[in-house]
Amino acid sequence: METSLTTKEVQHVAKLSRLALTNVEIEQAKEDLSTIFEHIARLNDVDTEGVDPLDHPTELLNRYRDDSIGKPLSQEQVLSNAPAVKDVFFDVPKVLGGDA
To answer: Which fold has domain 7-44?
Structure first.
């Protein structure tokens, strides 16, 4: 299937998309969109008889495990992994304005 778009059609799509295209970009968009439409047309020719529709390309499985209580880390163990500590808190750079 040969799809040839007109310059006016591409300009209309660009306007709907709020794109300001130069004449060179319009010509390139005509080629690109034509290629896309040809690919879609080829997909329409694929025989999908007996193929169930998918809602996801791979099977999704929930991975459950038992929620078991373990020994908690001590405050010293947790703070030993921090790059900077002030008193008994993580010391991080200020990310919001103000003097706090």
So the answer is: Histone, subunit A (1.10.20)
